[in-house]
């Protein structure tokens, strides 16, 4: 059962007048839990139960050899997120291979399907609930200078809780990866894999060079947009930013974006890649609510043998004949490697972890940074405030709509409209600022306590203000992830974002602000009486990458080689967003999917030789 963030403490602490803390606010959450808290899809109970029985038989208390002999797979994939779901599907296409997919979170509950409710998923039972370490230049308006660092913890991972924007990145993002020694990772090599995963239902489908129509991920435009989307679109066009397909290889432009959804329901990678084969392919086992605590590595031969995981308070070992693949994401893959002895020697030794390979795991953290404080005030003409009663009706209406979902809940609304510009600091013909927008209700509540507001806000379809967020998409600053000193395995890792430690990042973002201000002067804005109110708060939109960097052997910071094999350790790969050496200038879900699609083919070809 899905559990929303517990906001009772926020409500009592602030003794607040936050709308979320009103009786109507709590009724709304209770309704969401009642209608969408469960898991609608069929999981074959018998199969699950028999799997549980098997697990109990091979608990870690048993003789190790017996466990190994009876419980062995070809590949074990840790994490059923964007990358893990793709890998599980593609590798299990080979009938002779036995695949195990292990996920720490639960099955994906129905609440994730509602595009407009992505905010309600943050801080809920589907989130690892990490937060950043206090830093001078980040999260300045938040108590203790720390921010939430949302990461998906469910089947589908972060693709089950994200904002559904379908983006790919600029050609230069990938050609650059190749130029620094990652042979085979250029745009031309990856384009077939972008097409392979896509089932485009929008006008872009006619461009068959860039787009695919037969893949697992349905891509559409929502059937409903309010007028603010068109106001934003027109204002950028007035400023000579062209309306283009933002998923093509040159992405300086503006548009109402494509989304990973089907008929108003989210298409996570779990929905796209796992549901259709669940309990159909007999060579794929999936274990949920199972937290992998360690890689089992033979320290003599530096060979990965399997993993240890915990489920229902018990610990189990499972073994892989061919490989273990870590797909835990940008925070949890480096964490798993480090607790298993793969990481910076000094850091591991300070925690008495015996070192298997001394690599720069956890370094090179990159993210897109923005501000939550740049607020656009809307006139009555475009504000879409709804009353509490209307809100409850909308939730019920969405629930009852069949077969297609439509209306404000079946869309991410203004979050779907986005633009990319190039400032004077961009050294190439590529964007360095992306603009994203988000609705905000009751701005006075936000100003009085931004933290309480942001952590308890759950609804996107009612607003009278907009956050306008110029996003730094080519940051120079680099952060780092370290293990928790008190409890490296179960404690939350220490996330240092180190935003704005390179001055150029501030310069570029200021250019983004300047451009935002010029929007106010457009006819599109004036016609609707929209104008800006300025403040200052940094925020991320959760695109961390780079902490298990891919690179050639000459790159001293590389953790994995261009086939994503961990340096110095046999039978171990990392496949997820953490391997990206440089962050693409774009939302990164589809780039992550493409990495997994591409590497699945490489793995198949390696073992067929
Ligand atoms: C709030 C939010 C909004 C976003 N919006 C967009 C957007 O609109 N468009 C876009 O393109 N991108 C967006 N992103 C980014 C994108 O969704 C992620 O970058 C992408 O999903 C990352 O994929 P991944 O496979 O690297 O990791 P994840 O999808 O995070 O998967 C990791 C999985 O591994 C599991 N796991 C981790 N550790 C363990 C362990 N030890 N044992 C077992 N299981 C484990 C996790 O529970 C999780 O399911 C957003 C992200 C967030 C959080």
From TrEMBL:
Disordered: region residues: 45-65
UniProtKB keywords: FAD, Flavoprotein
Residues annotated to bind FAD: 292
An MF annotation (GO) of this entry: oxidoreductase activity, acting on CH-OH group of donors
Compositionally biased region (Basic and acidic residues): 46-65
Protein family according to the UniProt entry: Belongs to the GMC oxidoreductase family.
Domain Glucose-methanol-choline oxidoreductase N-terminal positions: 329-343
Protein name: (African queen) hypothetical protein
Gene3D superfamilies (alphabetical): FAD/NAD(P)-binding domain, Glucose Oxidase, domain 3
Cofactor(s) needed by this chain: FAD
InterPro entries cross-referenced by the UniProt entry: FAD/NAD-bd_sf (IPR036188), GMC_OxRdtase (IPR012132), GMC_OxRdtase_N (IPR000172), GMC_OxRtase_C (IPR007867)
Top-rank taxon, per record: Eukaryota
């Amino acid at each position: 059962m899905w559990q929303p963030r517990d906001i009772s403490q926020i409500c009592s602490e602030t003794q607040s007048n936050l709308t979320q803390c009103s009786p109507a606010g709590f009724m709304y959450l209770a309704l969401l839990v009642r209608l969408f808290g469960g898991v609608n899809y069929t999981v074959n109970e018998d199969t699950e139960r028999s799997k549980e029985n098997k697990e109990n038989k091979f608990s870690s208390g048993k003789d190790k050899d017996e466990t190994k002999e009876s419980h062995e797979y070809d590949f074990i994939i840790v994490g059923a997120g964007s990358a893990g779901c793709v890998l599980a599907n593609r590798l299990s296409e080979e009938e002779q291979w036995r695949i195990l997919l292990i996920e720490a979170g639960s099955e994906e509950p129905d609440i994730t399907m509602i595009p407009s409710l992505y905010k309600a998923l943050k801080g809920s039972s589907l989130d690892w609930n990490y937060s950043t370490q206090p830093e001078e230049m980040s999260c300045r308006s938040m108590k203790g200078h720390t921010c939430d660092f949302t990461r998906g913890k469910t089947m589908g991972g972060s693709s089950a809780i994200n904002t559904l924007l379908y983006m790919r990145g600029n050609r230069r993002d990938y050609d650059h990866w190749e130029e620094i020694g990652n042979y085979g990772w250029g745009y031309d090599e990856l384009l077939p894999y972008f097409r392979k995963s896509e089932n485009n239902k929008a006008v872009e489908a006619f461009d068959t060079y860039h787009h695919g129509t037969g893949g697992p991920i349905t891509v559409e435009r929502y059937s409903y947009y309010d007028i603010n989307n068109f106001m934003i679109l027109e204002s950028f066009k007035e400023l000579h930013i062209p309306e283009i397909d933002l998923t093509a290889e040159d992405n300086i432009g503006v548009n109402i974006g494509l989304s990973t959804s089907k008929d108003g329901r989210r298409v996570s990678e779990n929905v796209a890649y796992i549901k259709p084969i669940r309990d159909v392919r007999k060579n794929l086992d999936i274990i949920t609510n199972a937290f992998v605590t360690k890689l089992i590595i033979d320290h003599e031969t530096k060979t990965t043998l399997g993993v240890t995981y915990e489920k229902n308070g018990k610990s189990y070992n499972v073994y892989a004949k061919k490989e273990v693949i870590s797909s835990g994401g940008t925070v949890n893959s480096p964490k798993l490697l480090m607790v298993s002895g793969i990481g910076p020697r000094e850091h591991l030794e300070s925690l008495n972890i015996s070192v298997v390979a001394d690599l720069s795991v956890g370094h090179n953290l990159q993210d897109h940074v923005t501000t939550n404080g740049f607020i656009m005030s809307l006139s009555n003409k475009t504000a879409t405030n709804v009353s509490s009663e209307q809100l409850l009706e909308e939730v019920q209406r969405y629930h009852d709509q069949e077969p297609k979902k439509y209306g404000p809940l079946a869309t991410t609304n203004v979050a779907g409209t986005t633009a990319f510009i190039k400032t004077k600091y961009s050294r190439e013909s590529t964007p360095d600022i992306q603009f994203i927008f988000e609705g905000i209700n009751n701005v006075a509540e936000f100003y009085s306590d931004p933290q309480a507001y942001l952590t308890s806000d759950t609804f996107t379809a009612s607003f009278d203000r907009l956050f306008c967020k110029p996003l730094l998409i080519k940051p120079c600053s680099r952060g780092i992830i370290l293990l928790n000193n008190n409890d490296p395995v179960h404690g939350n890792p220490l996330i240092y974002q180190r935003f704005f430690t390179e001055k150029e990042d501030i310069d570029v973002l200021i250019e983004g602000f300047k451009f935002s201000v010029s929007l106010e002067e457009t006819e599109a804005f004036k016609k609707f009486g929209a104008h800006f109110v300025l403040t200052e708060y940094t925020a991320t939109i959760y695109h961390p990458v780079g902490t298990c960097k891919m690179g050639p052997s000459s790159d001293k910071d590389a953790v994995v080689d261009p086939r994503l094999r961990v340096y110095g350790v046999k039978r171990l790969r990392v496949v997820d967003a953490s391997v990206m050496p440089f962050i693409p200038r774009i939302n990164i879900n589809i780039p992550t999917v493409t990495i997994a699609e591409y590497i699945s083919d490489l793995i198949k070809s390696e073992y067929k030789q």
